From TrEMBL, chain A:
Keywords, in A-Z order: Flavoprotein, FMN, Oxidoreductase
GO molecular function term, any single one: oxidoreductase activity
PANTHER family with a match to the protein in the record: FMN REDUCTASE (NADPH)
InterPro entries to which the protein is assigned, alphabetical: CE1759_FMN_reduct, Flavoprotein-like_sf, FMN_Rdtase-like_dom, NAD(P)H-dep_FMN_reductase
Official protein name in the record: NADPH-dependent FMN reductase
SUPFAM superfamilies named in the record: Flavoproteins
Keyword Iron-sulfur: no
Automatic annotation (TrEMBL), chain B:
Domain Luciferase-like: 1-297
Record GO terms (molecular function): monooxygenase activity; oxidoreductase activity, acting on paired donors, with incorporation or reduction of molecular oxygen
Sorted UniProt keywords: Monooxygenase, Oxidoreductase
Lineage: Bacteria, Bacillati, Actinomycetota, Actinomycetes, Kitasatosporales
GO CC term, one of those recorded: cytosol
Protein name stated in the entry: Luciferase-like protein
InterPro entries xref list: Bact_Lucif_Oxidored, LLM_FMN-dep_put, Luciferase-like_dom, Luciferase-like_sf
Transmembrane intervals: none
Keyword Protein biosynthesis assigned: no
Keyword Oxidoreductase included in the entry's annotation: yes
C-alpha cells in the first residue's frame, strides 16, 4: 500500500523534502554495490538539488537485514527493523535499487526483500536499477532480470540501467563506450527528472476500508 | 470475560521422540483436551476446520457434537469455520442441529481459509475469497433468521422457498465471530452486523492487530451497535508453562525450534518478544496476558493454543491444569477496573433474553 503523503501535515501546500530510498544488496563490507549505490544517490540528489529540491536520502543495506528477511519468509511477519526498511522503500518518492549479479541474475537476498513488499506497493514509483559484477559480460542481467521484476511491480524504471564491472572502477571507457561516471550521471538525470516532474501532485487519499454496503452491493446479481 | 482454548488439529511429530501420532490418536486427544478444558474451569473449546493433511478436523460439528454429549457448561466453537468453501446452507443446518444437541452452547468463528488448493477442491476460486465470505455469510444470516428464503447470488445455486432445518434453538441463531489476520474488509463485516471480531494474533506482532481491532471498534460504533469500547473482541495467545520458568523454556525449546509454524525461523526469545507466545511460569503467563488489555482495550474472549508443536497429550493435559489456575487469577484481574458498560461475550441465554426484552419493548410502544 502506498502511504506516501506528499504534503507536510498541517502546512497545506508546503512541500516536504524529496524522499530518495536506496536499496543496496552487497554482501561484503565495504562493497562495490554500496559504492555504486552511493554514487547514484549522490548524483540524483545533486540533480534534484539543482532544480531546487531538498532531498532526504535513506539507505537500506540488506546485509544488515539478512536474518530478518529469512525470518519473515518463514513466519509471515517482519521484525521492526525490516518493517521500517520496507516503509522507507514504499514511502519514498524514488528508489535506487542495486544488486550484485549472482548466477546470471539479482542476488537471492535482493529478490527476497522485494518478495516481502506488497505487490501493489511500488505502483508508479520511479526506480533506477543498477548492478555490479566481476565482468561486463553480466550486464544484461539488468535488462533480463531487474527490469521485468520492477515491471511486474508496476514501477517506472528509468531507461538507463547502470552496470558497474570491476574494470569500470578504473577505466575511462573508450571511443565507443560511455564511462561509468557518464552512465551514472545520465541515469541520475533520468530519475531526478521523473521524480521532479511528479512533485506537488498529492497522492489520492486511501480509504481505510470499503464501506460494507458497497461490498454487498457489488455482489447483487445484475 | 470468557477464557478457553482453540486447537488447529495438526498431526505433528514430537521432535523429542520422533513419534507421530496417528490420526485416530490425534482426534481422540482433541476431544480429551476439550473435556479437560471444562474440568479445569475454562469456558470455551474451539476447533479448526481443515481439508488437507496434516490436519484432522474436517468435520467440526461431528467432533463438537461428541464433546457436547460429554460436557455440561463448555461453549463449543470453531477457529475457524470456512465461510468461503463450505455451502452456507450446510453451515446453517449443521450448526443449528449442534445448537439443539448442545442446548445452546454453540457459537462460530468465520474465516476464509488460506490453503490455496482447498478452494478449487470445493469448486471455488481463492481470488474471490472476500466476496465469497461476504455473500455466503449474508445468506447464512438469512437462513437462520427467515423461515422461508428466496435467494439469488453470484456463487451458489439460487434458492426458491427454502427452509433451513432445524430452525435455530429458541429461534435465536448462534453468535458469530469473524476471524481475520490481515483483512480490514472482515473487520468491517463484523462491525456492520454487530458480530464479534477475533484477532488471531498468535503469529504476528501486536501493533498490526491493534490497527485491525481499532478499525473494528470504530466501525462497530459507526453502525450504531454501541460505543467502540462495547464492541465484542476476542484474542488468541499461546503458552507453555512449568512452575519454574527455566524448566518451561528448556522443555519447550525443541518443540518451538522444530514446530511447523514457528520453527527454523526466529529464536524462541525473538518470537516471544514479538508475539503473544509465553513460555515460562504461570505468573509470567498471567502478566503477559494482562498486557493484552493495555493494547486492545477491555475484551470479551481469550483463547489459548496449548496443543501445538507436537506436544504429547500428557503434557497438554498438564498445561491445562496450570491454565485452570492461571485463568482463575485472570478472571479476577480482568474484572478489576472493567467499565460496567463493557458487555460480556453474548451467549445463547443472553441472546434469548435480549430478544425477549426487545419484543416486550415493542409491545409496550
Amino acid at each position: 500500500m502506498n502511504t506516501a503523503v506528499r504534503h507536510v501535515p498541517g502546512q497545506p501546500g508546503a512541500l516536504r523534502p524529496v524522499r530518495l530510498a536506496v536499496v543496496a544488496a552487497g554482501l561484503s563490507v565495504p562493497s562495490s554495490t554500496r559504492l555504486l549505490a552511493d554514487r547514484l544517490a549522490e548524483a540524483t540528489r545533486g540533480r534534484l538539488a539543482a532544480d531546487g529540491h531538498e532531498v532526504e536520502v535513506r539507505v537500506v543495506e540488506l546485509r544488515d537485514l539478512a536474518g530478518d528477511i529469512a525470518n519473515n519468509l518463514v513466519t509471515g511477519f517482519p521484525s521492526a527493523a525490516l518493517e521500517e526498511a520496507v516503509e522507507t522503500v514504499t514511502g519514498a518518492d524514488g528508489l535506487i535499487a542495486v544488486t550484485p549479479v549472482f548466477s546470471a541474475s539479482y542476488s537471492g537476498l535482493f529478490k527476497s526483500f522485494f518478495d516481502l513488499i506488497d505487490n501493489t506497493a511500488l505502483t508508479g514509483k520511479p526506480v533506477l536499477a543498477a548492478a555490479t559484477g566481476g565482468t561486463a559480460r553480466h550486464s544484461l542481467a539488468l535488462e533480463h532480470a531487474l527490469r521485468p521484476l520492477f515491471a511486474y511491480l508496476r514501477a517506472i524504471v528509468v531507461p538507463t540501467a547502470v552496470y558497474a564491472a570491476s574494470e569500470d572502477w578504473g577505466g575511462t571507457g573508450d571511443a565507443l563506450t560511455d564511462t561509468l561516471p557518464t552512465r551514472i550521471d545520465r541515469a541520475a538525470g533520468e530519475l531526478a527528472e521523473l521524480i521532479g516532474g511528479r512533485r506537488g501532485a498529492p497522492a489520492p487519499e486511501a480509504e481505510a476500508v470499503v464501506p460494507f454496503e458497497r461490498q454487498l452491493a457489488a455482489l447483487r446479481p445484475e | 470475560m470468557q477464557f478457553g482454548i482453540f486447537t488447529v488439529g495438526d498431526v505433528t511429530t514430537d521432535p523429542t521422540t520422533g513419534r507421530e501420532p496417528t490420526e485416530h490418536e490425534r482426534i481422540k486427544a482433541m476431544v480429551t483436551i476439550a473435556q479437560k478444558a471444562e474440568e479445569v474451569g475454562l469456558d470455551v473449546f474451539a476447533t479448526g476446520e481443515h481439508h488437507n493433511r496434516p490436519f484432522v478436523p474436517s468435520s467440526p460439528t461431528t467432533m463438537l457434537g461428541w464433546i457436547a454429549a460429554r460436557t455440561e457448561r463448555l461453549i463449543l466453537s470453531t477457529s475457524t469455520t470456512l465461510i468461503t468453501t463450505n455451502d452456507p446452507v450446510k453451515i446453517a443446518e449443521d450448526y443449528a442441529m449442534l445448537q439443539h444437541l448442545a442446548d445452546g452452547r454453540v457459537d462460530l468463528m468465520m474465516g476464509r481459509g488460506n490453503t490455496g488448493p482447498v478452494y478449487p477442491w470445493f469448486g471455488q476460486d481463492i481470488r474471490q475469497g472476500i466476496p465469497l465470505a461476504i455473500e455466503n455469510y449474508a445468506l447464512l444470516r438469512r437462513l437462520w433468521r427467515e423461515d422461508v428464503v428466496d435467494w439469488e447470488g453470484k456463487f451458489r445455486t439460487p434458492l426458491q422457498g427454502f427452509t433451513s432445518t432445524p430452525r435455530p434453538l429458541d429461534g435465536v441463531p448462534p453468535f458469530v465471530w469473524h476471524g481475520s489476520i490481515r483483512s480490514p474488509e472482515i473487520a468491517e463485516q463484523a462491525a456492520y452486523y454487530g458480530d464479534g471480531f477475533f484477532a488471531n494474533n498468535i503469529f504476528w506482532p501486536k501493533h498490526h492487530f491493534r490497527k485491525l481491532v481499532n478499525l473494528y471498534r470504530e466501525r462497530y460504533a459507526h453502525y450504531g451497535h454501541g460505543t467502540p469500547e462495547q464492541a465484542i473482541v476476542g484474542l488468541g495467545g499461546q503458552v507453555f508453562m512449568r512452575r519454574n520458568s527455566q524448566d518451561a523454556v528448556r522443555e519447550f525449546r525443541p518443540y518451538f525450534d522444530n514446530a511447523p509454524v514457528y520453527g527454523h525461523g526466529p529464536s524462541l526469545e525473538e518470537f516471544t518478544a514479538e508475539t503473544p507466545l509465553t513460555v515460562g511460569s504461570p505468573q509470567e503467563v498471567i502478566e503477559k496476558t494482562l498486557t493484552f488489555r493495555d493494547t486492545f482495550g477491555d475484551y470479551q474472549r481469550q483463547l489459548f493454543l496449548v496443543d501445538h508443536a507436537g506436544l504429547p497429550l500428557k503434557t497438554v493435559l498438564e498445561q491445562l491444569d496450570l491454565l485452570g489456575e492461571v485463568v482463575a487469577v485472570l478472571r479476577e484481574e480482568f474484572a478489576k477496573n472493567r467499565p460496567a458498560d463493557v458487555p460480556d461475550a453474548p451467549t445463547h441465554a443472553s441472546l434469548v433474553a435480549q430478544r425477549d426484552a426487545k419484543a416486550l419493548e415493542e409491545v409496550a410502544q
